[in-house]
Automatic annotation (TrEMBL):
Organism, as annotated: Tulasnella calospora MUT 4182
Entry keyword annotation includes Cell cycle: no
Its membrane topology: Multi-pass membrane protein
Gene3D superfamilies recorded: Amino acid/polyamine transporter I (1.20.1740.10)
Membrane-crossing segments per the record: 71-94, 100-119, 140-158, 178-198, 234-262, 283-301, 307-330, 351-378, 384-405
UniProt subcellular location: Membrane
Principal subcellular localization: membrane
InterPro entries documented for this protein: AA/rel_permease1 (IPR002293)
PANTHER family, sorted: AMINO-ACID PERMEASE 2 (PTHR45649:SF9), AMINO-ACID PERMEASE BAT1 (PTHR45649)
Pfam families, per database record: AA_permease_2 (PF13520)
Protein name, as recorded: Amino acid permease/ SLC12A domain-containing protein
Length: 452
């Protein structure tokens, strides 16, 4: 197996367990991660479509009417654009992605400054509203306020997902062993801190709760409109939408690489079609467009019920976060097994600190994943049901059933791109990765080094 691999967690998880567990663990994590990534792309694109239409409502002074069909139409159009962009060569994708970082951070800081400058001090909420219980409003029906508060964490949990996206393109970048974890660390810390400050400012300047979400249907947009005015809000909103557009761009790119890796290893009933690379663009075009098509399906739930469509946000968090904790747990459970050849990389947290972080991570993820599968309103009806658990359980059950009765015959776990995969089916490394590539072999092989 090649580290870091395009499969990301899918490949890494299988390398952290004994041989007899590699296939089932790799298969389960691969499908969990793929399901979460598809829901992530779909939910972010769906949110972007709503953001664009919200701007149309304010821009026309309420003359424009938002309907479910318009939202789904814009949603599908945006996915098509992202599919085209992700069909480009990796070097062009890298250039586009590098500009997104500056827009994201710059727009966030600018919004914080403008909101504080434009909001009269007398109209700002007091500290006990921003940080205390005065600002908690239970709109979850018969659920206790504590549970309602946990439901509110969905937006945070959803935002702080897919931070492993960089790992999925690590076969296509220089010095991947350093670049991939560095990018993940900076993204998580940067997004967490700046996003936390942004949320504080937005709550501080939010005004009366009764005025939200307003004509646009989006509270964030309405708060900006209340404080900055129509023109200023629309200008800043362009950068906000551009940031969301960038998020979908990188998320779809990572999801396509996951599909590519699983297909390459015969973890899909596609005969390896999506595990091939286009000879001109050196990118997995079949995987890109298959993911683009699949991501349309969750958005169609909005035509049935907006409440049902919201399930894709919870599904993203539940599936992705559960896939994240599998390699963490495997690393600790099989740490002394002779068949597991784990070697710490440049970024590693040793000792008691590492144990504490891992235990907290696994415990919290299992807890919040369970909470986010609950219906967010009591009493529950067909319209208020949280369908995330239904979709999650249905897809995983079908996948595991197929594995038990058929796929186990030819799926032997993640194979990486070493050996037989190093030909046409290997992602082109246009940047020529000159790092030393560590190969984790089965128990009858030695851990060896392959210098590219």
């Amino acid at each position: 197996m090649l580290f870091p691999p395009a499969g990301g967690l899918y490949t890494a998880s299988a390398a952290l367990v004994p041989k007899r567990f590699r296939a089932p663990v790799g298969f389960t994590v691969g499908w969990l991660n793929l399901l979460g990534q598809v829901a992530g792309v779909s939910s972010t694109e769906f949110g972007l479509a709503r953001m664009i239409l919200a701007a149309a409502v304010i821009g026309t002074d309420g003359a424009f009417e938002v309907t479910q069909h318009k939202i789904v139409g814009v949603f599908i159009g945006l996915l098509a654009v992202h599919g085209i962009l992700n069909s480009l060569a990796t070097k062009w994708l890298a250039r586009m992605t590098s500009s997104f970082v500056f827009v994201n951070v710059g727009a966030t800081i600018l919004i914080i400054i403008v909101m504080l400058a434009m909001t009269p001090r007398s109209e700002m909420h007091p500290p006990n509203y921003v940080f205390g219980s005065a600002g908690i409003v239970n709109e979850a029906g018969a659920w206790p306020t504590g549970i309602a508060f946990l439901f509110g964490l969905l937006s945070v949990q959803w935002t702080m997902t897919d931070y492993d996206a960089t790992a999925h393109i690590s076969e296509e970048v220089q010095r991947a062993a350093y670049a991939a974890p560095s990018a993940i660390f900076v993204a998580v810390v940067g997004t967490g801190l700046i996003g936390w400050l942004l949320n504080i400012v937005m709550v501080l300047c939010s005004g009366p709760l009764a005025d939200l979400p307003g004509p646009s249907g989006m509270s964030f947009f309405q708060i900006m409109f209340l404080r900055i005015g129509k023109t200023g809000t629309l200008i800043l909103w362009v950068f906000v939408c551009f940031t969301a557009f960038a998020v979908v761009q990188t998320a779809l790119q990572a999801t396509a690489r996951t599909l590519y890796a699983i297909s390459r290893d015969h973890g899909l009933p596609d005969r390896g079609v999506f595990g091939t690379v286009n000879t001109k663009t050196k990118t997995p075009l079949y995987a890109v467009w298959m993911i683009t098509f699949i991501c349309v399906l969750p958005g169609l739930l909005d035509l049935a019920s907006p409440i049902a469509a919201n399930a894709i946000f919870a599904l993203t968090t539940v599936a992705l976060d559960l896939s994240y904790i599998v390699p963490i747990a495997c690393r600790r459970i099989f740490r002394n097994h002779p068949e597991v050849h784990f070697q710490p990389g440049p970024f590693y947290m040793p000792g008691a600190l590492g144990w504490a972080a891992n235990i907290i991570c696994v415990t919290w993820t299992l807890f919040i994943a369970t909470i986010l599968c609950f219906p967010t309103y009591l009493p529950t009806t067909a319209q208020t049901m949280n369908y995330a658990s239904v979709i999650f359980g249905g897809v995983l059950t079908l996948a595991l059933t197929w594995y038990i009765f058929d796929a186990h015959k030819y799926y032997k776990g993640p194979q990486g791109n070493v050996g037989r995969h190093l030909g046409d089916n290997a992602l082109s490394n246009e940047s020529s990765d000159r790092d030393v590539v560590r190969v984790v072999a089965d128990e009858d092989e030695k851990v060896k080094t392959d210098e590219k």
